[in-house]
Amino acid sequence: MAHLSDYDTRTQYKATIKKTKRLTPDDTDEVREIQLEIDHPDFKCEIDQSFGVLVETDGEFGTPFHHRLYSVADIPTKRKNTTKLTMLVKRCFYVDEFSGEQYDGVASNYLCDQKVGDEITITGPFPLPFSVPEDKSANLILIGMGTGIAPFRAFIKHIYKNVKDFHGRILLFYGAKSGLELLYLNEEDGDLTNYYDQDTFEAIHAFSPRPLWNDPVVLDQAIEDRSEEILQMLSVLNTYVYVAGYEKVREGLDNAFSNVLGSKKEWKTRKAELIAGKKWVEIVY
Q: What are phi and psi of 18, to 5 degrees?
């Protein structure tokens, strides 16, 4: 997987903040949905692409700019020379492992602080590894954590709006601390519930057992609870597994799939087959 330093940031565009809305309650981690407008004839971004945000810094780490990538969280729209993109941003902080001091995440805090009418600099677009299979009967197991729902929201909407005759099974596993942080699948903002009437689509939620104590989300348990169906899906060659979210979920996923297949050896073999066939794809951060 490419590192941020590998991406060419020389192609840049100005983007205007058209909307910014907090999706999570005030007493939870802040996640904002931000809509950008890019007025340039050469800019074009699709659902299987990401784009970068450049933030000017003081050059402390040897560079005057901080670069971060974001997935599109909705189907991009283009009218004449103007493109509109939607992104999800979680206001992040990190703790210095040596001093123990807490610092603001550069790009996330910069974007969450933007107001309507403000202008930012974006780069790209860059390719995402998630793509709609050519086989319209292919199965998709989508696993997202937090703002990892962004590419899958656009992906699912695109399949049911723009891809004709897709009839494969789609399971979306989505983890959040609580139902209040379940983006696009809650009572106030149930965008993805529009597709519940599709026989092929189902979303399975996973929550932290004690969200106020910051216990980990039991995403692995949610997967194991659907063992029979997942085992059936993984037994055929046209099943794809796409993962987006926190890097720390990797180990839990491997344990869950090992339990589903019956052993770590069986899962190691099946995962290697998926990776070799470009049917296991992950974006982790």
A: -95, -35
The H-or-E segment that residue 273 falls in is: helix 264-276
Do 4-125 and 139-284 agree at the fold level? no
Domain spanning 4-125: CATH 2.40.30.10: yes
Angle at 250 between CA 275 and CA 104, to 5 degrees: 125
Helix H or strand E encompassing 228: helix 227-234
Which neighbouring-strand residues pair with 72?
Answer: none
For 117, residues 6+ apart whose C-beta sits below 8 A from its C-beta are 16, 17
- Report the C-alpha gap between 30 and 22 in whole angstroms: 7
Phi, psi of 195 (to 5 degrees): -105, 5
As a whole number of angstroms, the longest Cα–Cα distance in the chain is: 56
Query: How far, in Å, are 69, 93, 130 from residue 30 at the CA level?
Result: 19, 11, 26
Range 139-284 has CATH code 3.40.50.150: no
Spatial separation of the C-alpha atoms in residues 107 and 96, rounded to whole Å = 17
Q: Who contacts 137 (Cβ-Cβ below 8 Å, separation ≥6)? A: 167, 168, 238
The Cα–Cα gap between 211 and 209 comes to: 6
Mean pLDDT for back-to-back runs of 10 residues, the chain (285 residues):
66 95 82 93 88 82 78 88 91 73 83 96 88 91 79 84 88 68 53 61 62 52 87 94 77 86 94 93 78
Structural domain boundaries in the chain: 4-125, 139-284
CB-CB contact of 87 with 34 (8 Å): yes
